[in-house]
Amino acid sequence: MKKIILASSSPRRMELLDRMGIPYEVFPADIDESYPHDIDILDVSSFIAEKKVMAVSTKIKETDKKSLVLGADTVICTENLILGKPSDRNQAVEYLHLLQGKMHKTVSGIALFNGENETVTVRKSVNNVFFKSMTDDEIEWYVNTEEWKDAAGGYRIQGKASFFIEKIEGSYSSIMGLPLFELYDILRSQNYSFL
Length: 195
Fold this sequence. Notes:
Elements: E1 4-6, H1 11-20, E2 24-26, H2 44-57, E3 68-78, E4 81-83, H3 89-99, E5 103-114, E6 119-131, H4 136-144, E7 165-169, H5 172-176, H6 180-189
Parallel strand pairs: 1-2, 1-3
Antiparallel strand pairs: 3-4, 3-5, 5-6, 6-7
């Protein structure tokens, strides 16, 4: 199988690529993750994913110029707000208060740059996550686990946050940060060999 350059240092994305058996090299994108103020909230993650692959594709060494570069981004949307990674403990508590007791959307965008033909393919996966109502003590307990660190919306579905998630509608891998169905579909469209 051909190696992919992963424009991310996310352990969750690496774990999901490992599950797929895809060889990869990590080359984190160092970008400004801002986006136009008039962009549709559901398109933000794919916009940032594309920025990541374009930044990395211009920096990779000449021998890798024909590589596939994969970028991904995940955002949490609630009440027309985007909740990124909490900057501190207090913001993590604030985010959980916003999410508890209701449904929110988790949107993962992916972009794949094909160095052979210099094209970018972009997809997104929109999922609904239903949080149960949480007491203040439960929120404090969860924040004390420190799972909120480096996690969009201040929680990790694959960790103890699953205690409070009643159901999801959509893709579990997408909520983790890398929609595998969409990734497989893009790779197959690029004639990527899984053999």
